[in-house]
Design a protein that fits this description.
Helix content: 25-40%
CATH class: Alpha Beta
Number of helices: 8
Strand order of the largest sheet: 6-5-1-7-8
Distance between the termini: 39 Å
Mean pLDDT: 87
Radius of gyration: 16 Å
Number of strands: 8
Structural class: alpha/beta
Low-confidence stretches: 178-191
Order of helices and strands: EEEEHEHHHEHHEEHH
């Protein structure tokens, strides 16, 4: 079975604060400071494509709230064709749509167990609920605005994918430390 990358969108492929309105329910927009911006969605998708190129066997399972909020087909269609071709499903299936787990870790783990996926990795900006002993299974940008483009994150993902696809234990990698914004970041909102 192919290795799976459990992919979140917000905070990874574009800034984290994405919302829709009642007037435009199928037009997600990035917000900053409570206001909509013209920042492009999926701006880091080409970077993810390049990072996955050396690993043609890696498949993607969507672990994004876009599936629950906007539907699976809509969520898949937002990806560029090369990433779309890798998508094999979502963690938000069946009972999880009716009774969502409290933590994404639980949904990802449940999906991996049900699919019998022996090798997987998550790319998600939310590490809430990831037990310390399983933290090596997630690459997590700590800057919610920069996501995958945050310095060091692409390298970390590339290294983790290399381990994943070579069969080496992911336990040997050291995840990035959680980001604690500097005083300048906190004062000027550049975190």
């Amino acid at each position: 079975m192919s290795p799976i990358l459990y992919l979140d969108y917000d905070g990874v492929l574009h800034p984290a604060d994405v919302r829709v309105t009642r007037e435009e329910p199928l037009r997600p927009r990035i917000y900053e400071g409570g206001r909509p911006t013209d920042c492009p969605l999926f701006e880091h998708a080409p970077l993810l494509e390049r990072l996955l190129e050396p690993f043609p066997d890696v498949r993607i399972s969507l672990a994004t709230s876009w599936v629950r909020a906007l539907g699976y087909k809509f969520a898949v269609q937002q990806l560029p064709p090369a990433l779309r071709a890798r998508v094999v499903g979502t963690i938000w299936q069946g009972w999880l749509l009716q009774v969502p787990p409290l933590r994404r870790h639980d949904a990802v783990t449940t999906d991996a167990e049900e699919r019998k996926v022996p090798r997987w990795l998550a790319l998600d900006d939310d590490v809430e609920g990831w037990p310390a002993e399983r933290r090596h299974l997630v690459v997590a940008p700590t800057n919610s605005w920069q996501g995958l483009a945050q310095p060091g994150v692409a390298d970390e993902l590339s290294e983790a994918l290399g381990l994943l696809c070579s069969g080496k234990p992911l336990e040997s990698r050291i995840p990035m430390e959680p980001h604690f914004p500097s005083t300048v970041d906190r004062l000027f909102g550049s975190d």
